[in-house]
Amino acid sequence: MIAKRKDDPLRELERTLGYGFVNRSLLETALTNPSYRSDHTAEGVKDNQRLEFLGDAVFGLLTAQEVYERFGDEDEGGLTVRRSHMASGRALAELARRIGLGSYLRLGKGDEAAGGREKDKSLTDAMEAVFGAAWCDGGLKAARKIYATLMAEHADEPLDVWAENPKGQLQELAQRKVWPDSPAYELTEVTGPSHAPQYTVRASVHGGHAATGEGKTKRAAEVAAAQALLRQLHEAGLT
Fold first, then answer.
1. Domain spans of the chain?
2. How far apart are CA 218 and CA 197, in angstroms?
3. Taking the domain 166-235, which CATH number applies?
4. Cβ neighbours of residue 217 closer than 8 Å, sequence gap 6 or more
5. So which residues are the catalytic ones?
6. pTM to 2 decimals?
7. What is 2-154's CATH topology?
8. Which has the closest alpha carbon to 228: 161, 197, 220, 191?
């Protein structure tokens, strides 16, 4: 993309963001990975880490407002979970990919060769840094405009906060049902060679409900067991 727009390489990105920067250098810094700065120390290049620090707080604030307004029946705990899900590194990396942010990153040669444009960390940091840059450029109004533009496409989608965290969902269910000593995970079997073990874990909750899951790591087996137990509890009308 950049190569085709030598006169103003960031204009299309600004259109995508829905905001034109008054101080374009802020946006350039937001897109500058530390690896690029390391390759250009003599030039005094700044990287995006300070803006990422600020943008993390800015994005968190805007997300808190979003969930507060969208989920009027949720209590504080529910809102906290939703905000954490929407502002997670994974969610930010996916957002960055959706708008093609990776193609605008300034990376060091080594990071470029290692596929840095698609790494979650690089994308998450840059996405947060963009919000930090917007805040510095135009305050809350600018950051809110970008947030509204990027989130508008998915504003009406249901938010499944547990999609990637079945253990967390099972924990929340147990707390809501006030089930004592729940959930519990027990490693029941390890099979296969030492270099490629297969773990089997049993997940259980109060009332005798239990299910097993398998995985190449103990953690993966616990996740599989939690998923299986959640399905069982749902079918029993206990969710």
1. 2-154, 166-235
2. 10
3. 3.30.160.20
4. 199
5. 56, 128
6. 0.68
7. Ribonuclease iii, N-terminal Endonuclease Domain; Chain A (1.10.1520)
8. 220
